[in-house]
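Entry 14. Structure prediction run on the chain below.
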Amino acid sequence: MGTTIRGGRRRGRVAAALGLMGELLITLGLVLALFVGYSLWWTDVVAARAAGLEGDKLRQTWSAPAAPSPGVEAPVPEYQAGDGVGFLHVPAFEKDDRTTLIRMGTSTDVLNEGVAGVYEEPYRSAMPWDAEGNFTMAAHRDGHGAKFHDLDRLSEGDPVVVETRDSWYVYRVAGTLQQTSKYNVGVVAPVPEGSPFTGPGRYLTLTTCTPVYTSRYRMAVWATLVRVDPVDDHRTPPPELR
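Output returned:
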């Protein structure tokens, strides 16, 4: 009789322990689900709001008249980390991601605001208006705006347009690299390594993490400048964006 009672108590304690463990696992699962929701949804909301405000501010500065002295060319702007440069337009992306604010820098603080950041190291990026060089940018692929989530959609011949205060820079994709080491800095070199380019030119490089939801590797898309259209009074976009 005593043995039976003791055995029942042991089974009861085991059942209670298993029940407690089950509850803890359920709680842990809920916490993880909330964290994933925060990372992949709420950070997108916050980043989109921040990028929208910064984009509006940049366009407001563009609307202010620039009046250089007669016969004197306007100085080429010098940008510091965090400064707004323009907008990146990628028709191949999903509708909400087709236009992205471009800011200087690729620090976490910059990229987490839902923008495309311009590389300042290990190679300082050329700018679109430079006579030659590689205009290089990075953006998140998931969370914090995920502006390059669809980067793998780009293929040879697709248009990519950079909008600045005075010009539309129209590029065409010339090559892609689906996966490489995150330490492969050659993909953003002035003449990017592994690209179809063999000498100096006016190039564009877009990079992001891959596979989706990881930061294990990097993906790169290379494009070459094909045309520069001046901005008119109505800011009419080039045919590639209509």
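DSSP finds two helices and eight strands in the chain.
Filed with the rest of this week's runs.
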